[in-house]
Amino acid sequence: MNRSGKYTIVEACNDHGAITLREFPRNGTLYVVEYDDPDVKAELSSLDAGSVVELDLRRAGRRGNAWRAESARAVETA
Q1: What pTM was computed for the model?
Q2: Where is each DUF7999 domain found (predicted)?
Q3: Structural domains of the chain sorted by starting position, each given as residue range(s) with its CATH number in brackets
């Protein structure tokens, strides 16, 4: 399953590389736990909570609400 859209960062990148997102402007919560390449991870890791990003995501694994970021583009920063 893939999805694209705008997301608000709820919790910035933690020590394990995970980021908590909220669908923008909805309120569904997603967790980015994997990245396609180091540039995508660096882009997302540099953003603070409250920032809005456009992401292309692919489900990471079969269960849960974990996602792999394929691309990231900052829209607004907090």
Answers
A1: 0.87
A2: 3-77
A3: 2-76 (2.40.50.140)
